């Protein structure tokens, strides 16, 4: 796991994702995390290479790691990558994507 983000930054990203984008995380895990049967997703980590989730499948929590499109070097890139993953997941699942987050 590449550490370009401080623990405080990781906690802030996780909190934002879990408080405001849990449904988006679930779509990402279903479509891009190879967990189509997931019923819930919680962001558990983020690093320069990927975003990590704990997803519920058949009543059990399992880890999912979804890679970014490129190695990230700045916090601001996380938002753009999450939006990209969300839109890609919507396209894969045939779900209409909302506008910008």
Structural account:
With 101 residues, the chain is of the alpha+beta class. The chain is 43% helix and 23% strand. It is built from 3 helices and 3 strands, in the order H-H-E-E-E-H. It has a 3-stranded antiparallel sheet. Strand 2 (50-57) and strand 3 (60-67) form a beta hairpin. Helix 1 (7-20) crosses helix 2. It is globular.
Fold blueprint:
Layout: H1 7-20, H2 22-32, E1 40-46, E2 50-57, E3 60-67, H3 76-93
Antiparallel strand pairs: 1-2, 2-3
Give the key terms.
101 residues, alpha+beta, Split barrel-like, 3-stranded antiparallel beta sheet, 3 strands, 43% helix
Largest sheet report: 3 strands, antiparallel
Unreliable sequence segments:
none
Give the CA-CA distance, first to last residue: 27 Å
CATH architecture: Alpha-Beta Barrel
Question: What CATH first level would be assigned?
Answer: Alpha Beta
Number of strands: 3
Secondary-structure element sequence? HHEEEH
Helical content class: 40-55%
Percent strand: 15-25%
CATH homologous superfamily heading: PNP-oxidase-like
Count of discrete structural domains? 1
What is the gist of this entry?
This protein has 101 residues and is an alpha+beta fold.
């Amino acid at each position: 796991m590449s550490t370009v983000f401080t623990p405080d930054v990781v906690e802030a990203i996780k909190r934002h994702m879990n408080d405001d984008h849990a449904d988006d995380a679930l779509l990402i895990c279903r479509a891009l995390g190879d967990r189509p049967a997931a019923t819930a997703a919680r962001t558990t980590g983020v690093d320069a290479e990927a975003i990590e989730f704990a997803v519920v499948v058949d009543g059990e929590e399992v880890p999912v790691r979804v890679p970014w499109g490129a190695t990230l070097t700045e916090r601001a890139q996380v938002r753009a990558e999450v939006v990209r993953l969300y839109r890609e997941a919507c396209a894969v699942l045939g779900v209409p994507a909302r506008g910008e987050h």
